[in-house]
Amino acid sequence: MPHSLPEQGEPWDATRDRMIAMAAGDVKWRDGKAAVYVFNAGEDVERVQKEAYAMFASENGLGPAAFPSLARMEREVVANGLGLLHGPEGAAGAMTSGGTDSILRAVTAARDFARKVRGVQGPLNIVLPRSAHPAFDKACLVMEIEVRRTPLKDYLADPVAMEAAIDDATIMIVGSAPCFPYGLIDPIGALGELAQRRDLWLHVDACVGGYIAPFVRMNGGDVPPFDFEVPGVRSMSADLHKYGYCSKGASTVFFRSEDLKKHMIFEVGDWPAGRMTTPTLAGTRPGGAIAAAWAVMQTLGVDGYRAKHGQVTQAREQIEAGVLARGFTVVGRPQLGILAFTREDVDCMAILGKLYERGWVTSAITEPRGLHLMLSPVHLTVVDRYLADLDWATRAAGGQSGAGTNIGYGR
Ligand SMILES: *Cc1c(COP(=O)(O)O)cnc(C)c1O
């Protein structure tokens, strides 16, 4: 049985060598060949992630009394996030294992708020634009909440369509900052106005934008209000392991007040080993992910993030100019690190497949069919190579209509 536990262990050196060999076929993300799955802020950041993670790899965030170090790091990471996202006095949050976890906890809090505070009975629903992340469907599947998706207007959430979908059983409305498919920020100001007028819980999913948008704005970028600055926003999700450049397994979920946050806390007292209280879904919480997030934030600081995100912006602007010059249309006006572009006379899925042959692991969009890039600082060094390979792939894809499938989500 090749995959069963070996009878006898081997020296770590031998195991490590085999792991290096196993990774030989993986995407060369350190060379900038991945524009999905990995956020590459360079060797300096990678080293901090790894050393900090290793220092606290055995420690457990479940026990704040045993590990006041981790409790302090989490508090400070949450405070940093709230500071960046205009968290008002009294705002609160927690670290989670990822964006899906953060969204799941926010939906849980909104549900319990609806049941306990608003007294809503019977089946519940959430209303969200077509472009919002499937993590909301996952949360609603777990909690048996109906998902009402509304059509987009110019690739953005349409507050009018969303209002039409709302009823007394709506526990949450959602806007993205930005949405994953197009990298565009929904009109959060208008959604906030709707939320206030109808007394609704507005969640802003800033999983992929929360730790880049504030710095792009500091760099002079045109970023509209999207966070707690908008009065109707009650909760937010922002992933540290994306544009926070932290190790994987780290996200943040935020609430406008402790009073709203308390609905996500899990507490059970009747158990032979005593009371169990957890802020998130997890029991055991990886100390490494907390420590690495804290360490990356300390070592980058505001100037470090501004510099890294400035490189992302430059890469995006150069690629945008490059694809426009090649006859592609950019979807909307992206302001952060994601862009999608399309061309009607060539099969973009076939181009995607050809790019993969040259080692590029990137994604696609399906409405319209197009190419999708989620850029990191490293991509500034490979813009010319990417565009040259895009030229080759476009030529190679000529006439191969319908040959591709959406491998962006599939792999
Ligand atoms: C990545 C992402 C998520 C989900 O986060 P995971 O960390 O992958 O669970 C949710 N929303 C948006 C907009 C995202 O980009």
Key features of this structure:
single chain; 411 residues; alpha/beta; Aspartate Aminotransferase, domain 2; Aspartate Aminotransferase, domain 1; 7-stranded mixed sheet; 4-stranded antiparallel sheet; 15 strands; 16% strand; globular; binds pyridoxal-5'-phosphate
How would you describe this structure to a colleague?
Helix 4 packs across helix 5 (135-143). The protein is α/β, with parallel strands linked by helices and 411 residues long. It folds into 2 domains: 50-297, 3-Layer(aba) Sandwich (Aspartate Aminotransferase, domain 2); 301-401, Alpha-Beta Complex (Aspartate Aminotransferase, domain 1). The protein is globular, with a radius of gyration of 22 Å. It is built from 13 helices and 15 strands. A 7-stranded mixed sheet has the order 1-9-8-7-6-2-3, sandwiched between helices. It has a 4-stranded antiparallel sheet with strand order 12-13-15-14. A two-stranded antiparallel sheet has the order 4-5. The chain has helices at 12-22, 43-55, 68-84, 99-116, 135-143, 159-165, 188-198, 213-218, 258-261, 287-325, 348-357, 383-396, 407-410; strands at 92-96, 125-129, 146-150, 152-153, 156-157, 170-176, 202-205, 233-238, 251-255, 266-268, 276-278, 329-330, 338-342, 363-366, 369-374. It is 40% helix and 16% strand. The protein binds pyridoxal-5'-phosphate. Pyridoxal-5'-phosphate (PLP) binds next to helix 4.
